[in-house]
Amino acid sequence: MSEKIKLGILGGGGDSLIGVLHRVASSMHDKYQIVGGVFNPVWEENIGFAQKLGLSTNRIYIDFDTFIEEELKLPKSERIEVVSVLTPNFLHFPMAKKLIESGFHVICEKPLTTTLAEAEVLESVLKKSNTIFAVTYTYTGYPMIRQMREMILSGVIGEVHKVDIQYYQGWINPILLDKELRKTIWRLDPKKAGISSCVGDIGTHAFNMAEYLTGKEVTSILADLNTRYEDNQLDVDGTILIRFSEYVKGVIRSSQIATGEENGLEVKIYGTKGGFNWKQENPNYLYYLTDDKPLQVLKPGHAYNGAISLDGTKLPPGHPEGIFDSMGNIYYGVAKAIRKQDHDSGEYPNINDGVRGMKFIEKSVESHKSGNIWLDL
Ligand SMILES: NC(=O)c1ccc[n+]([C@@H]2O[C@H](COP(=O)([O-])OP(=O)(O)OC[C@H]3O[C@@H](n4cnc5c(N)ncnc54)[C@H](O)[C@@H]3O)[C@@H](O)[C@H]2O)c1
Q1: How far from 310 is each of 104, 139, 142, 304, CA to CA, in Å?
Q2: Which residue from 52, 218, 294, 309 lies 20 to 30 Å from 352 (Cα-Cα)?
Q3: Within 10 A of 201 (CB to CB), how many other CB atoms are there?
Q4: How far apart are CA 347 and CA 353, in angstroms?
């Protein structure tokens, strides 16, 4: 019987958005056991939340440094094996770097860091270690995204020639309208978010989708970003033209001020023989288009899906898969890598995806500030 992987969590407290997604995801395939961590920088909230979860509090630490110090004192067989970093962006780099250097595997939220330079340091530190490192580009875990990828990579839609990915949210709009409220949001604070809000938070997901689904790297971009108000420093909207080559092009449209939009990630990819449409808010329906046949709708769990899609589907067709399942599939892939089991390279986004994401963010901001020019990635 294989033992569950001991998981630590940094951030993701009761007050957080993303914590619950990671906790549920980690439990989905029965591969992990949450052992300890630092959920919150305020001790009472940290320990109170751990108690609420029913965790034993002896491995809940007052801060990250204490976490490392105390865990390293334990024999390896008892020590936490993998740590999920779910804090605001500016803490990803110092935490992930020290975790790698101390021999822990890491599951890190996106964007990987706040600068490309930091991301490249992490990449080089990682090369000298045996660490498994995942970056949670959540949407790569959806069964129908994985199915679309497999079909594109096996040539079903021919040569890809047009990629259009939109990620529209509206939640920042009412906050932005209130000058005081604006100052309370870490995603709008360059010290905590990095050099971008919209492109860094959601444009990067769209960019990751473009490269994940096509299996190709974007070679150059041209960005037009919008901070909306003169006294707001970071972009809240951005349209970015992308080129894979001279004849394969596309667009990434991202916004946090698309008033009333919820989590509108929409993917459209077209090739010489067919195309795909997929919407995150209706993720079990993959629309397959061709020139000469009626529209086909592919759904999870059916035998016509490929292995990587079916592996992440836990119930028979008709039981909807959602974002928890998507993140659960990423955790499943990481578990296989940690336990040295066979897995597909598409089962979890890795450091390269994280570094590519940071390159995209930095070049988007640079392109915009330089007068909307084309820049190589
Ligand atoms: N993959 C996705 O789809 C997705 C979605 C949302 C957020 N995210 C990413 O997840 C990260 C967190 O985002 P969020 O929306 O959950 O933020 P949040 O502000 O809602 O929560 C952050 C959590 O980190 C804790 N924290 C802050 N400083 C800490 C410290 N020093 N030590 C321990 N805990 C600390 C806070 O107490 C809080 O619980 C960000 O990097 C964000 O980009 C990813």
Answers
A1: 30, 16, 10, 9
A2: 309
A3: 24
A4: 12
Give, in order, the Cα–Cα distances in Å from 115 to each of 13, 19, 91, 228: 25, 23, 12, 23
Q: What is the mean pLDDT of residues 341-361?
A: 97
- Pick the closest to residue 145 from 334, 346, 360, 363 (CA basis): 346
Query: What is the CA(163)–ligand 1 centre distance, in A?
Result: 30
> Which residue blocks in the chain are alpha helix, DSSP H?
19-28, 43-53, 64-73, 92-101, 116-127, 143-153, 172-176, 179-182, 190-193, 198, 204-214, 307-311, 323-338, 351-369
86 CA → ligand 1 middle, Å: 5
CA of 39 to the centre of ligand 1 (A): 10
| pLDDT tens digits, 53-103 | 999 999 999 999 999 999 999 999 999 999 999 999 999 999 999 999 999
Ligand 1 near 357 CB (within 6 A): no
Q: What is the pLDDT of residue 1?
A: 45
Indicate the top mutation candidate among 9, 10, 18, 42 to test ligand 1's pocket, ranked by most ligand atoms within 8 A of CB.
Answer: 18
Question: How many Cα neighbours within 13 Å face the side chain of 137?
Answer: 32
Nearest CA to ligand 1 atom 19: 16
The distance of Cα 3 from the centroid of its chain, to the nearest Å, equals: 27
Span from the CA of 36 to the centroid of ligand 1 (angstroms): 17
Please indicate whether residue 48, judged by its CB atom, sits closer than 6 Å to ligand 1.
Answer: no
> From its phi and psi, is residue 365 left (phi > 0), alpha (psi between -120 and 50) or beta?
alpha
Report the nearest atom of ligand 1 relative to the CA of 201.
Answer: 43
CA distance 80 to 344: 25
For ligand 1, what atom is nearest to the CA of residue 15?
Answer: 39
| Mean pLDDT, residues 42-49 taken together | 98
Question: Is the whole model's pTM more than 0.70, yes or no?
Answer: yes
**Mutate which of 40, 62, 95, 135 for ligand 1 pocket (most atoms within 8 A of beta carbon):** 40
User: pLDDT tier at 219 (50, 70, 90 boundaries)?
Assistant: very high
